[in-house]
Write a structure and sequence with these properties.
two-stranded antiparallel ribbon; 40% helix; 7 helices
Length: 201
């Protein structure tokens, strides 16, 4: 089992991602990136250990805490003051993105919106599944053989398990083009298999 808290890439990801994000967002991003589900306690311990703050704690209700105006109706005066900014039925906010929209995340990867209201996936995973007619598991990651995160060509995307990805990153087995990148990815697979064989797994 991978000890995520001791993996440099995972630690670096959390340190950079946590500021400005809530626990639910952190858990979702970490799961999408590494296939590992973190608990709120693990995230809290990580924040304390590395002195990282999300900055969102004071901006949301605690679980189970009722809203101060729950069950209360607005007065006609209050309704008149805020009616201009209220959402109408069927109205979409100005920053709403349609399914199929794309964006670049903080790590430079393309994300594509796959469901409403706000479900996004890494586009390399979506494209790999389309190219090979498969459904990736949480234990599988997609790497770019030439190192270009924007190159989504079929021959540039390669599937590794999370354990193989750790070897790939730890040993910096990355190529400068698709051909050498393929050799590096295969070497990561072989290295992982050898380690398991030595350990008798």
């Amino acid at each position: 089992m991978i000890k995520w808290s001791k993996e440099p890439e995972m630690v670096k990801f959390l340190i950079e991602y946590i500021p400005g994000h809530q626990e639910s967002e952190i858990r979702s991003a970490f799961l999408e990136r590494f296939g590992i589900t973190l608990t709120e306690a693990q995230i809290g311990n990580f924040k304390h250990k590395y002195g990282v703050k999300s900055g969102t704690h004071g901006g949301r209700f605690e679980k189970g805490q009722p809203a101060f105006n729950k069950g209360k109706k607005m007065t006609p005066e209050q309704y008149k003051r805020c009616s201009g900014t209220m959402f109408r039925k069927g109205h979409s906010p100005q920053n709403h993105r349609e399914v199929g929209s794309e964006r670049i995340n903080v790590d430079g990867y393309i994300e594509i919106k796959v469901e409403e209201p706000n479900k996004w996936r890494l586009k390399q995973r979506v494209m790999y599944e389309k190219y090979h007619n498969v459904k990736l598991t949480r234990n599988e990651a997609i790497v770019f053989l030439d190192g270009n995160k924007l190159n989504l060509a079929e021959d540039n995307l390669f599937c590794l398990t999370r354990a193989e990805l750790v070897r790939y990153n730890q040993n910096k087995l990355r190529g400068e083009d698709s051909e050498t990148g393929l050799g590096a990815a295969l070497l990561a697979k072989l290295s992982t298999r050898l380690r398991r064989s030595i350990k008798g797994e």
